[in-house]
Amino acid sequence: MTAPSTLRVLSALVLALALAAPAWAQGEALEIGARLPLADRAMPTTSGSATTLGQVMGNRGLAVIFWCNTCPWVKKYEDRVVALANEYMAAGFGFIAVNANDPVGYPDDNMDAMRQQADAGGYPFPYVADAGSEAARAFGATRTPQIFLFDAGGTLVYEGTVDDSPSEPAEVEEHYFRDALNQVVAGEPVAVQKTRAFGCTIKFQ
Amino acid sequence: MLRTFCLFAALAALAGCSGRDVDGGALSIEPVTADGLLEEVRAVGADVVVVNVWASWCLPCRDEFPDFVRFQHESNPDEVQVRFVTVDFEEDLPAAAAFLREHGVTGTTFVKDGRDGPFITALEPRWSGAVPATFLFGRDGSRLDFWEGKVSYDQLARRVREARASG
Fold first, then answer.
1. Which of B89, B127, B151 lies at the smallest CB-CB distance from A72?
2. Per-residue pLDDT for B5 more than 60?
3. Cystine design at A56: which of A94, B28, B65, B92 (Cβ 3.0–4.6 Å)?
């Protein structure tokens, strides 16, 4: 095969792969030990102001939770996440919920709807809009809910879900997120660092 | 443990519930673990088995679903078969059944059984758990391809074609 023909074949292959790339090619989630990305990036909150991940960071660490308004898994976990936030914010953790969904393609995830949800749910933490889904891409977040827990130094120590029973709180056997928070408080290594659970794909902008 | 959820076409509402396709286009949604699903994949006997994981409230899942149904109908069953697995919560199974019926799905489909984490990692360790997700398996149950997120008919057809060529 001559060089120009080879180049044409390779170009066609690259183009075909690009066109074929589905949504999961957004990227892998941050690895344990990664540094907190976009710490100084301002994101609008449902209270009408703006905040950054760095500003929300607590003296024990920060929980960044990719969240939205419409996902049944988010709804199943909402009370539990609010309860955990109330408990562990008092212990020195910052919590922040981040909605990276496209608010134009999915109006149920626009700022007005976010504000209603935060008010109705009594969110004690900021609920912010991730313009352009930039934070979701930087974190490698793919679904909601998806938790990224950083220690006070901004190092990722846990990534995954709240617990192992989204549908029935009474049937929870593994409290993954609570255990991680407690281990950080105790100065111990997080034993279960990554977990998998179902959730709704982030509707990237 | 989820009981088998059987739904019949309107005119066959009083028939017995076998969990398998019967005359009249009966639909059943059977609980399945990851191991059970992989056994089903191996039992199908096609070059490629497409497993689509979806949920009734998931908009991208609903968007791509008709393309998967059409692809199934247009494929030679010796070459390609499609299996649907919903991850709906139990209270949402009637909505899932209504959606399947709306799209002309009959026979046996599945609902995830057991804890999320083990189901996800058994099917594919790289899968984050986001839905929709699609898996391509070979005749012997080997994993050929996987992706998260919505795809078009053409993308699905291309991925299956490539999997058949590589299998």
1. B89
2. no
3. A94
